[in-house]
UniProtKB/TrEMBL annotation:
This is Helix-turn-helix domain-containing protein. SUPFAM superfamilies: CheY-like, Homeodomain-like. Residues 437-534 form the HTH araC/xylS-type domain. It comes from the Bacteria. Residues 180-308 form the GGDEF domain. Keywords: DNA-binding, Phosphoprotein, Transcription, Transcription regulation. Residues 4-121 form the Response regulatory domain. The modification 4-aspartylphosphate is found at D56. The lineage of its organism: Bacteria, Bacillati, Bacillota, Bacilli, Bacillales.
Length: 537
């Protein structure tokens, strides 16, 4: 847009010469009007709002200096160029001191007027560009204020500061808080990290946006405060503490309730200690995080006050070493029922709120149990390198991504304990099957010897009762039944080969021929001679 030019002079020749005999369009200037005295000139200025004004100092009704003062009073930012005679030089200097752009002495040439107007135009363009630049900066600052507030508050939560150091930035960022009597609340979205790990980053971003709005509205209804994001799934709330002692705790409960009611998420909240000034904000924040960590026991949707933690004992042994030894004893035996019962007994110590201290220590204790169970699993794998490698890999994964709640730890340990017991039981079954197969092979190759349950159990390095039960479970026969069946089967083969009954009796472990014949008839329904007659015709 071209700058507009007005001329005010009591000489018609001057006005006409400046307005009509100079080709202002070639200089990018728009002639906008002229007046013959100061009063008419002021009306013209009000109506046209020129960017450049040329006025004579000496005029009837209102001189140029008075007109200039009126322009200043109007607050219209036009560049005023004064025309002065020799005797008006001091007036011109005064006008320049007041802020007039320049002055031209009579008599003057058209080129002088063009030159000073072009200078005024250049100044207008430069100032317009500078104004646009400043406004752009101001706009960007306004747009950046939320982010700047976030960064500034995060610094206040982590590093001690003084009111003198923070006051200017506090006012500049327009923080909606009084600079005293704070409490910090740490708010965690329950179950957010598993959702992100499964690819739900968009869901988490939408959740953070909606939950931030809910928290801001809830805080605004109760007190002055600010909500900032503090990581992927956490918010930090700095609020001015109310007159009631538990006002921050009540606010935390209200935030938890509103999130549950107005969203499909739940949150856990830790309430920090009072912070009289900005210097104490980091400590209040640390205490809020310490309180928040106790959601490990609740599993979420809960509020914990740092003040309540003082009532908890400094150190409690939630389970004894004997409990751990009992668990591992049952695990090594593959006794899943008893091992899970031993785990449940260990859990009981952690379910008691009086013993719920130091969530990190509790998680470390559970990791120690997991490591012990994995040691049992690796030992059970024996020479199976692949199985040992799988156990080591699972343990590394558990250390890297440990469960975040007591319930999740219980589920993990139960699953691990059951897997260890199943693996050991399977290994024991496999070994037992091999023991029985070796016993069966031994029986078949030693039918002529005296075979008893006791002797066979000793060869298998098992107790007599366990061996007898295991033998029947795998073969379907008692040891005695199996031995008789194998002996009679072998006797049939020998009879078919034409061996003598006396010889056969000795070969299948019977010293007395009559006793063998009675046993054979009892087993087959016929005597050995009758069987051979039937087979051989």
């Amino acid at each position: 847009m071209k700058p507009k030019l007005c001329v005010i002079d009591d000489s018609r020749i001057v006005c006409n010469g400046i307005m009509n005999h100079i080709r202002w369009d070639e200089h990018g200037i728009e002639p906008a009007g002229a007046a013959m005295d100061g009063e008419a000139g002021l009306e013209l200025i009000r109506r046209v709002k020129p960017d450049i004004l040329i006025t004579d100092i000496r005029m009837p009704r209102k001189n140029g200096i008075e007109l200039f003062r009126d322009v200043l009073a109007l607050g219209w930012p036009c560049k005023v160029i004064l025309i002065s005679g020799y005797t008006d030089f001091e007036y011109a200097q005064e006008a320049v001191r007041l802020g007039a752009f320049d002055f031209v002495s009579k008599p003057f040439l058209a080129e002088e007027i063009v030159s000073v107007v072009n200078k005024a135009k250049e100044r207008i363009v430069a100032e317009s560009e500078e104004t646009a630049r400043v406004r752009g900066l101001e706009r960007r600052v306004r747009e950046s204020l939320p982010l700047l507030r976030q960064e500034f508050v995060q610094l206040l939560l982590r590093f001690a500061s003084t009111p003198e150091q923070t006051a200017k930035r506090w006012d500049f960022l327009q923080l909606p808080l009084a600079m005293a009597d704070f409490v910090v609340l740490a708010v965690e979205i329950d179950g957010a990290e598993p959702s992100v790990a499964s690819g739900g980053i968009l869901d988490i971003e939408l959740a953070r946006f909606s939950l931030s709005n809910i928290l801001e509205e809830t805080v605004a209804q109760a007190t002055r405060g600010i909500v900032v994001r503090d990581g992927l799934s956490r918010f930090a709330l700095i609020v001015n503490a109310g007159p009631e002692a538990d006002a921050p705790g009540q606010l935390a409960e209200l935030c938890r309730e509103h999130v549950e009611r107005y969203s499909r998420h739940t949150v856990s909240i830790g309430v920090g200690s009072p912070a009289p000034g900005v210097r104490e904000l980091p400590e209040s924040y640390r205490h809020a995080l310490a309180a928040l960590s106790y959601s490990f026991f609740s599993g979420g949707n809960s509020v914990f006050r740092y003040a309540d933690l003082a009532d908890r004992p400094a150190e409690v042994e939630p389970y004894s070493s004997d409990s751990e030894k009992e668990l591992l004893l049952y695990a090594r035996a593959g006794n899943k029922t008893r091992a899970l019962e031993a785990l449940s007994a260990i859990y009981a110590g952690f379910d008691d709120k009086r013993t719920q201290v130091d969530p990190d220590g509790t998680a470390a204790a559970f990791l120690k149990l997991a490591e012990a169970l994995y040691d049992v699993l690796a030992a059970a794998a024996g020479k199976d390198a692949d199985a040992r490698a799988r156990a080591a890999s699972e343990l590394r994964s558990l250390r890297a991504e440990a469960p975040r709640t007591l319930a999740a730890w219980k589920e993990t340990l139960d699953r691990l304990c059951a897997a260890v017991c199943d693996r050991i039981a399977a290994e024991r079954t496999h070994e037992s099957e091999a023991d029985i197969q070796r016993s069966v092979a031994y029986i078949r190759t030693h039918l002529q010897e005296s075979l008893t349950v006791q002797s066979l159990a000793r060869l298998a390095c098992l107790s007599t009762s366990y061996f007898a039960n295991l033998f029947k479970k795998q073969t379907g026969f008692t040891v005695a039944q199996f031995i008789i069946a194998e002996r009679m089967g072998r006797a049939k083969e020998l009879l078919a080969e034409g061996k003598q009954v006396q010889e056969i009796a000795a070969m299948v472990g019977y010293e007395d021929r009559v006793y063998f014949s009675d046993a054979f008839k009892k087993h087959t329904g016929v005597t050995p001679s009758e069987y051979r007659q039937r087979i051989l015709g």
